[in-house]
Specification:
The protein has about 425 residues and is of the alpha+beta class. It contains 13 helices and 17 strands. The protein has a 7-stranded antiparallel sheet with strand order 3-4-5-9-8-7-6. A 5-stranded mixed sheet has the order 11-12-13-15-14. Strands 1-2-10 form a 3-stranded antiparallel sheet. α6 packs antiparallel against α7, α10 (about 355-365) packs across α11 (about 370-385) and α11 packs antiparallel against α12.
């Protein structure tokens, strides 16, 4: 399924506002600013370091520094990574990637304060090198700082690296770019781009609809992640064909509504009054975009897609879970996979929307034992941002055969098919 292709957040119960510019534990060292060869990216490093430019074809800038007092050397590489919007979700997405790349046991260690980052140790010519990746967002441009130092020097250098990560800057405009013919509105943490044919009244109606859906999302999953450098971007068209120049998938959607996981933008067309099919597509894509913004693909697919299809079904039928539109209900009764099997299938696209929705409904409205397990899962996610561990500890630790049997019984007895209006 296309949701499984999502890369790239976690909205904590107490939302961290801004881009984690919290001060490091120790006083910052005197620093000098260095720029990339094209001048578009900058970083500050201690004045005591003897810094020279290093060459690396895939970075936006690379540096090699000799430390004072024969303290050895360090390297710093900066990457511009499209799609990174939530710096608090990114470490959990990457903690398994880097150990595999370097051939060392994982996962990498995650630390959130004062700058979200992951680190791990790699054997290096008889010594041990510590690699760390720090994350920052500037005007929706994702920046990653990769540092390498002698593991024994990490404690002495950690503050320097944190300050360097916090200093990362760029002259790049907001990502991704939108044609200058679109009007730009900023309100309530949203950036709304209006096609020239969109009327103010229609843009206002879209904003109200999104805020209503956002309120429902917040009740269950915490505040929508939208700090100043990572606003939630909505592109509004008056008609579906108007989206052709901006996004082929939005233009190809039935009603012009599409949550782009590549561009991290929500494309919408104001739903005509009384058109339940258009409204259903609008809310489904809005919920998909909310999850992408707040969890960056780290939350289980059966939660994000399950909720998105639940919103779709409710808009299409006028009934909320455990009622569900007839078409989804019919395929649920063909039997469910075990939850652990569904989780394993999700990245390859093997999970189906009816199965995802069935488990979402079951954990929200099924027997108390399972409702409590789901509540504990959400509590852990809110506290740590670690969706993978929360799912493993709270849900995949349950007897999976019994869970599937209980879910199938719930579908047969409690879920009610409803025809679309």
């Amino acid at each position: 399924m296309r949701r499984a292709a999502a890369i790239l957040v976690m909205a904590l119960a107490a939302q961290i506002v801004g881009d984690t510019r919290a001060a490091a534990e120790d006083p910052p060292p005197a620093a000098k600013e260095y720029a990339s060869a094209d001048g578009r990216f900058t970083i500050s490093m201690p004045t005591s370091w003897a810094v020279s430019r290093d060459r690396h074809d895939v970075t936006v800038m690379s540096w090699f520094a000799k430390l004072p007092d024969d303290g050895g050397d360090v390297s710093l590489e900066v990457y511009n990574v499209a799609g990174i919007l939530n710096v608090r979700a990114q470490p959990y997405l990457e903690r398994g990637v880097h150990p595999e790349r370097y051939g060392v046991p994982g996962p990498a260690r995650v630390e959130m304060e004062p700058v979200p980052h992951v680190w791990m140790d790699v054997p290096d010519k008889g010594d041990v090198a510590r690699h760390a990746w720090f994350y920052r967002v500037v005007r929706r441009n994702g920046l990653t700082l990769h540092t390498v130092c002698d593991a024994k020097r990490w404690d002495a250098l950690r503050t320097d690296f944190l300050c360097a990560a916090q200093s990362l800057g760029t002259t790049l405009p907001e990502w991704p770019p939108v044609p200058g013919t679109y009007r730009r509105l900023s309100r309530d943490g949203y950036i709304e781009y209006l096609h020239p044919s969109v009327k103010d009244a229609d843009a206002d109606a879209v904003h109200r609809l999104l805020r209503t859906q956002e309120a429902e999302f917040t009740k269950r999953y915490g505040p929508l992640w939208k700090p100043p450098d990572s606003p939630f971007v909505v592109v509004i068209h008056a008609r579906r064909p108007d989206a052709e120049a901006m996004d082929q998938y939005a233009a190809g959607a039935d009603h012009g509504n599409w949550a782009s996981f590549v561009k991290r933008q929500l494309f919408v067309v104001p739903p005509p009054k009384g058109d339940n099919s258009a409204m259903a597509e609008f809310v489904r894509e809005a919920w998909s975009a909310f999850f992408a913004q707040s969890f960056a693909g780290s939350i289980p697919l059966w939660v994000s897609d399950g909720e998105s299809w639940a919103a779709y079904s409710e808009a299409a039928t006028g009934k909320s879970l455990p009622s569900v539109m007839q078409g989804l209900f019919d395929s649920m009764n063909d039997g469910l996979r075990r939850l652990d099997e569904l989780v394993a299938l999700a990245p390859s696209g093997g999970a189906t929307r009816d199965q995802l929705l069935a488990y979402l409904a079951f954990f929200r409205f099924g027997p108390k034992t399972y409702r409590d397990a789901f509540a504990a899962f959400l509590k852990d996610v809110a506290a740590t941002g670690d969706c993978e561990t929360a799912q493993k500890t709270r849900l995949l630790s349950l007897d999976q055969a019994k869970l599937r049997a209980a879910a199938e019984s719930f579908v047969a007895r409690e879920m009610k098919p409803v025809k679309s209006k």
